[in-house]
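Quick one:
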Amino acid sequence: MNRRPTLLAALTLTAAAALTLSACGSDDSPKGKDNDKIAGADTGSDTSASPTASAPASAGRPKIDLPSDVTYEFEWKKTGDAQKDAVLSDAEQRIRAVDMAIARQDPLDKGYRFYSEGTAAAESQKYIREFVDHKARTTGLTRYYNESLTIKDDGTAALVYCEDQSKAFNKFLKTGKTDVTPVTKDSYVVYAGTLRKNDKGVWVTERLISQRGSAKCQP
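Output:
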């Protein structure tokens, strides 16, 4: 099982996404190590270190409640641009909301659906369903870093970022056992996402592709 979903990893990166990946470093692969985790999946000076769990709901946004052992380090830098910072914030909330749906064992949880639409929402549902089928959830620390964000002329946002899963694992609900797996190059994943601001003012993720074992994301 893979910790995170391959999402659209089986598909070739589009030319635009590939160019974006090249622009922010090198590139490469999706959420989850091969055969050790279940597979799911978004500047200034301040970074966001997010130890856990409960993000406040505001403006009709869902409250994100997570188990205390599901933690994050978001190293995404604040840009000072209100629009770009809103994109990064909503992309972060989508990531948290997917893990919340997994913890709740609910593939149709409203939280992640608030922050995603289209292909991204459909693939996230499949990802969450895989955890439910295995009666497992996520645990541990996941780190997000090396972000690159562009607002395009059509109003959409292109976001590329890295994920470090070396300290994140599967936890099986029936036994309480955590499947601690070795760190490999596949513990590091690059994502390229497309986001659009909807009529509620939320930057929803519409498409997300990922590549596992990314050279760009290796420590």
